């Protein structure tokens, strides 16, 4: 007996498949209905909102704050006792005023809120006091006690001052190569304090170690210096009057002065900086060369 399948059965099967596919698509495309918030969910939400409104679950005990020594330094020591002023801020009153005048117009000290910032003079003083001390004296609480502000304010004003100092326009104005007049004055000073044969050595270089407040997490051994501190190596090039004309930074405390010196700008541009027999003074950590090369 022969069996024959009609085309209608085939089309019926295909139709069933199409219906099945459409139903699957509907099930996949349908969005689940949002569940109404449960009583527990509402309770948790209300508890979180109440916590954000209060910020603190327990009452706070405010630390009594004294007036601080900052106002005395700026109002009394600055004019009557310049040497005591320098002991606190590590700069003379004249230098301090010039720094404040150069920074006070920076946008970082402009506030758009109703709460005005403290005077730029005070912010610079707090930053200088913090940078001029080491160890426990440079701790946030100690600086806050000295200045009469909160610990958070100490970090805030430090960031503001450093933001203004690191502006390219300020750095270019504060640290630059000497003018011909300044170079000649430096040569005259060297000649008057030594001999005429040495007058062409109008600048000097030396490295200094800047201690870090804690041991770095990465590559900590490279920061360990010869003085058993974790620090950074900074190269300073200055005139005899201590005016800084170039500096180099970025090397760790274990880096030799000669290696760090090679990264300074004055080494890279020595052919345009030094003329004829001019040279730079350095200690025994630097190599002595007849020509002006990176080794000195």
TrEMBL record:
Protein name, as recorded: DDE Tnp4 domain-containing protein
Protein keywords: Hydrolase, Metal-binding, Nuclease, Nucleus
InterPro entries in the record: HARBI1-like, HARBI1_dom
Region of interest: Disordered: 1-42
The keyword NADP is annotated on this UniProt entry: no
Organism lineage: Eukaryota, Fungi, Dikarya, Basidiomycota, Agaricomycotina
Organism: Neolentinus lepideus HHB14362 ss-1
Ranges of biased composition (kind: Low complexity): 1-10
Cofactor needs: a divalent metal cation
UniProt keyword Nuclease present: yes
Domain DDE Tnp4 span(s) in chain numbering: 205-287
Family named by the database record: Belongs to the HARBI1 family.
Acidic residues composition bias: residue spans: 11-28
Gene Ontology CC terms, in alphabetical order: nucleus
A Pfam family hit: DDE_Tnp_4
Molecular function terms, GO-annotated: hydrolase activity; metal ion binding; nuclease activity
Localization terms from the record: Nucleus
């Amino acid at each position: 007996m022969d069996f024959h399948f009609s085309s209608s059965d085939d089309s019926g099967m295909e139709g069933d498949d199409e219906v099945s596919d459409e139903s699957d698509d509907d099930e996949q495309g349908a969005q689940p209905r949002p569940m109404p918030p449960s009583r527990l969910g509402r309770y948790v939400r209300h508890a979180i909102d109440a916590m954000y409104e209060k910020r603190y679950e327990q009452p706070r005990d405010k630390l009594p704050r004294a007036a601080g020594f900052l106002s005395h330094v700026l109002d009394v020591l600055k004019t009557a006792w310049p040497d005591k002023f320098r002991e606190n801020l590590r700069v003379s009153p004249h230098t301090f005023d010039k720094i404040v005048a150069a920074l006070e117009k920076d946008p970082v000290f402009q506030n758009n809120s109703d709460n005005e910032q403290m005077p730029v003079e005070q912010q610079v003083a707090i930053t200088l006091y913090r940078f001029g001390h080491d160890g426990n004296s440079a701790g946030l609480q100690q600086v806050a006690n000295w200045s009469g502000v909160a610990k958070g304010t100490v970090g805030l004003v430090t960031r503001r001052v450093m933001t203004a100092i690191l502006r390219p326009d300020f750095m270019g104005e504060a640290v630059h190569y000497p003018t011909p007049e300044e170079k000649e004055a430096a040569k005259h000073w060297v000649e008057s304090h030594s001999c005429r044969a040495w007058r062409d050595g109008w600048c000097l270089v030396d490295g200094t170690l800047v201690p870090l407040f804690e041991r770095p997490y990465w590559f900590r051994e490279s920061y360990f210096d010869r003085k058993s501190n974790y620090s950074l190596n900074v190269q300073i090039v200055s005139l005899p009057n201590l005016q800084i004309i170039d500096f180099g930074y970025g090397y760790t405390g274990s880096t030799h002065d000669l290696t760090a010196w090679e990264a300074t700008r004055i080494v890279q541009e020595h052919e345009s900086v030094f003329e004829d027999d001019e040279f730079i003074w350095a200690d025994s950590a630097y190599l002595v060369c007849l020509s002006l090369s990176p080794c000195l």
